[in-house]
Design brief:
CATH architecture of the largest domain: 3-Layer(aba) Sandwich
Number of helices: 11
Radius of gyration: 21 Å
Number of domains: 2
CATH topology of the largest domain: Rossmann fold
Oligomer: single chain
Strand order of the largest sheet: 8-7-6-9-10-11-12
């Protein structure tokens, strides 16, 4: 009996590729012409896994796996309608992404990027404005899942910052986080924090969440960090907040459109530190996310629904449709 085929456009380290080849034939490189007939697809955040993608794969497609926590590029409703299980690996990128958020914060607070740019341009002059000491300052976390909690620990215990958090999906009566002060509203966090770090999923409710009005609530001279999803922030409003001097800086790893237009006005705004969606791009994270995706796909092909499934209710329909 031939081995099932798995298609992927995601970065899969050699150990993960070898793991997959123990139970399936792996097609890497993202060539869509090789997608039809595949039993599973392991997709990157750049792959539009919509209904057309699923139909191109055909009825053989059992599962779509997203290495990582975000899955806004996967049409879950379309997958559910077709009996396809959608899998994520929420534990994989936690440490890497949390550390990247803090790296962006430190780069801004300590004028690292501005200093580097000036020296490379031949200037040894001081930055226009002094940096910020973080000990005793307040960081506000928007979203308090795995990554937000890790940032809270690094900034609270490690940097000596006061930590506020807002997350309407957290039951604070059952959450053990003595170093964190929960806030009842988003506006309360924004208006009280020297640094705001975004760790929320992209949903209809969070799209454009940080708009001009919300940016205006942040204290003058504060910093915004976004390692969640680009569309959570109104980029035009952010540009204006940076140019006006209302914000001292912003650190972005994600953008409304990826790859972004680097000629857009935002990228010429002062004191903006940007990285190309690499918060989870460490060897440890790639290995953890890849192994999680491979294990989830193997579970589906073995006849069971994996614990990381986004739409587990589809499993009985999926099994019945495929006669297993």
């Amino acid at each position: 009996m031939p081995m099932p085929r798995i298609w992927s456009d995601a970065r899969l380290v050699p150990e993960v590729q070898e793991q997959i080849r123990q139970f399936a034939e792996l097609t890497t490189g993202g060539d869509l012409d090789r997608l039809p007939g595949c039993a599973a697809a392991i997709v990157s955040s750049m792959c539009p896994a919509d209904g057309a993608f699923m139909d191109r794969a055909g009825d053989a497609l059992w599962a779509i796996a997203r290495p990582g926590i975000g899955y806004d590029n996967v049409d879950v409703a379309a997958a559910t309608a077709r009996g396809i299980v959608v899998i994520t690996t929420p534990d994989g990128p936690t440490e890497s992404t949390a550390e990247h958020a803090v790296a962006l914060l430190l780069a801004l607070a300590k004028c690292v990027v501005i200093g580097d740019r000036r020296m490379r341009a031949g200037s040894f002059a001081l930055p226009d404005h002094p940096g910020m000491e973080l000990r005793g300052r307040t960081i506000g976390l928007v979203g308090f899942g795995r990554i937000g909690r890790r940032v809270a620990t690094i900034c609270g215990a490690g940097l000596g910052m006061r930590v506020l958090a807002y997350d309407p999906h957290v039951d604070w009566s059952r959450t053990v986080a003595p170093e964190v002060t929960p806030c009842a509203t988003l506006d309360a966090v924004l208006s009280s924090a020297d640094v705001v770090s975004l760790h929320t999923a992209l949903t209809d409710e969070t799209r454009g969440l940080i708009d001009a009005g919300r940016l205006a609530l942040m204290p003058r001279g504060s910093i915004l960090i976004n390692v969640s999803r680009g569309p959570v922030v109104d980029e035009a409003a952010l540009e204006q907040a940076l140019r006006s001097g209302h914000l001292a800086g912003a650190g972005l790893d994600v953008y409304r459109v990826e790859p972004p237009d680097l000629q857009a006005p935002l990228f010429a705004a002062p004191n903006l530190v940007t990285t190309p969606h690499i918060a989870s791009y460490t060897r440890a994270a790639l290995l953890a996310m890849g192994r999680g995706a491979a294990a989830g796909v193997a579970t589906v092909l073995g006849g069971a629904c994996p614990p990381g499934a986004i739409n587990p209710d589809v499993w009985p329909t999926s099994r019945a449709r495929r006669g297993s």
